[in-house]
Design a protein that fits this description.
The chain has 13 helices and 12 strands. By secondary structure, it is α/β, with parallel strands linked by helices. The protein has 2 domains: 2-385, Tubulin/FtsZ, GTPase domain (Rossmann fold, 3-Layer(aba) Sandwich), CATH 3.40.50.1440; 386-436, Helix hairpin bin (Helix Hairpins, Orthogonal Bundle). A 6-stranded parallel sheet has the order 5-4-1-6-7-8, sandwiched between helices. α2 (71-78) links the parallel β4 (63-67) and β5. The longest helix is centred in the first third of the chain and has 26 residues, at 101-126. It is globular and about 60 Å long. It starts with a strand and ends in a 6-residue tail after the last helix.
């Protein structure tokens, strides 16, 4: 089940379900795609895990879209792909969360989530065997932080044994869409620390840099950013959607990537990122692609200098015709590289997934069509730099109690600020301890 929350989650959802439709041969109207005029392979692949069939040949995404105000979901319905989604699972309120975690959590979530939890319950009952939920949201928005935190607590109570994974847009170091992003991020992370099994982080600035430098897009828009995110998410979920030689299910992600319950924030890398002009001139064999994953230019989060962090675990998800022998050689080469350091208490370090279904790039999209690709989910101590950065901004504002009245006015207590900040300071310390000795407080 996919749950898209707030403006970021809904817009990511549009790109992600467009990508899934391409790969499974399902059109914007939910029908099987007809053969394209240019002869492209649009072979249909059933995907009962992500789509439900209505009995008349129409496929409906197992997705719920939630926002506290109607505009973004109205735009989704008006888009080409809008017809694909069940209107009963498009849940919208009447008021904006105003980039305010407290407004989302205390004031609006009760009204908005009544319809949402009913839709989620209905979808769960229709499923034969619910593995878990994938959530898409931003840390910095009012809905993405406040409503998501409240929903996660409800999901933990109602579906305690189901896996909860999220793809989260993290505030960028310099590109900022809201002044109070640091407050929202720290409060949301504190509130949902025990309700989320694994949260894959991406930041707009890192993806913006990839689009401008690697894909030569002069002024990347959110559509460009979301198209790249759609490709990355597709790489992560491929093993859930297609059969493969070495599949990875939802529970395996957390088993292999979360060494301690609190350290559940892996970063994502993707390769190859190639433009159509360069596709015939670049080397994208298995060794070269695997090496690219460890370069900051391919990582979806900006987190300090690459040499500072140590890796605790890496999950490499390959797509296309790939031999295990080539992967073993590529990993041996990485292990021999001094620039990629692992913690001394994790001797194996790598989890591998192989899926024979090659990636599909959007027609006239930014990425060149390639026969194989790889997505990496990595638990690294370098991610603590990202948390340090947001904590520092939080401290600068909170020292002056700037903007705090907007949060307190929505029914939040002042003490929650200091509790949340203390929790995040402990998270930074946990990552530092993991990098040095591995003795982390549970």
């Amino acid at each position: 089940m996919s749950i898209h929350l707030g403006q970021a989650g809904v817009q990511m959802g549009e790109a992600i379900w467009t990508q899934y439709g391409l790969e499974h041969g399902i059109g914007m109207d939910g029908q099987r795609m007809a053969e394209m005029a240019d002869g492209c392979d649009t072979q249909f692949h059933a995907c009962p895990a992500f789509y439900s069939e209505n009995g008349e040949g129409r496929y409906v995404p197992r997705a719920v879209f939630i926002d506290t105000e109607p505009m973004v979901i109205d735009q989704l319905q008006a888009a080409d792909i809008g017809e694909l989604f069940n209107p009963d699972y498009l849940v919208r309120g009447k008021e904006d969360a105003a980039n305010n975690y407290a407004r989302g959590y205390y004031s609006l979530s009760h009204r908005t989530l009544v319809g949402a939890t009913e839709a989620i319950r209905q979808m769960a009952e229709d499923a034969d065997n619910l593995q878990g939920m994938l959530l898409y949201h931003s840390f910095g928005g009012g809905t993405g932080s406040g409503v998501t935190a409240h929903l996660l607590q409800q999901l933990e109570e109602e579906f305690p044994r189901k896996t909860r994974l999220s793809f989260s847009v993290y505030p960028s170091p310099y590109l900022c869409t809201s002044v109070v992003e640091p407050y929202n991020t720290v409060l949301m992370t504190h509130r949902s620390m025990n309700s989320m099994e694994c949260s894959f982080m991406m930041d707009n600035q890192a993806i913006f840099s990839i689009c401008s430098s690697r894909l030569s897009i002069e002024r990347p828009s959110y559509a460009n950013l979301n198209q790249l995110i759609g490709q990355v998410v597709s790489g992560v979920t491929a093993s859930l959607r297609f059969g493969g030689d070495l599949n990875v299910d939802m529970s395996e992600f957390q088993t292999n990537l979360v060494p301690y319950p609190r350290l559940h924030f892996p970063l994502i890398s993707f390769a190859p990122i190639i433009t159509c002009e360069n596709v015939n001139h670049e080397n994208y064999d298995i060794g070269a692609m695997t090496k690219q994953l460890f370069e900051p230019a391919c990582q979806m989060v900006r987190c300090g200098s690459p040499g500072r962090g140590k890796y605790m675990a890496c999950c490499l998800l390959y797509r296309g015709h790939i031999l295990p022998k080539d992967i073993n050689e590529a990993i041996a080469s990485i292990k021999a590289t001094r620039s990629v350091r692992f913690v001394d208490w994790c001797p194996t370090g790598f989890k591998i997934g192989i899926n024979a279904m090659p990636p599909k790039m959007a027609p006239n999209g930014d990425l060149a069509p390639v026969r194989r690709c790889v997505t990496m989910l990595a638990s690294t101590t370098a991610i603590s730099d990202a948390w340090s950065n947001i904590d520092e901004k939080f401290d600068i504002m909170y020292r002056k109690r700037a903007f705090v009245h907007w949060f307190v006015g929505e029914g939040m207590e002042m003490q929650e600020f200091s509790e949340a900040r203390e929790n995040l300071a402990c998270l930074e310390m946990d990552y530092r301890e993991a990098g040095s000795s591995g003795c982390v407080r549970q």
